[in-house]
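INFO batch 0412 | record 1 of 1 | parsing
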Amino acid sequence: MTTRLSKLFGMDIVTVNGEHKGKVFDLVINLEKGRIETITTEALKARTKQEAKKIISEKSIPYNRVVAAKDFLVVGNSPRIEEEPEEPTQAPRRPIRRY
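INFO prediction complete | emitting tokens
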């Protein structure tokens, strides 16, 4: 599934059962892995760590729960299974024999 990040902002979030969860307010991106980690429905401008934790736990949705993104985001109850990219395998090398 691919879509532009700019298209996600303000998009409605709906569960597979049709329950409205809010609108996409912000995205937390893991730059090292190059993927979206979390979608928030509220600003992450917190004054304390407790406030930030509350926003992340109550007002956020892990991106791995997103099932579809077109006109709105559809989220499931459990994380979607993502296949990890396989490491390239190399054929075993033969030892070089010199006579």
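INFO post-check: The chain has one domain: 5-75.
INFO record closed
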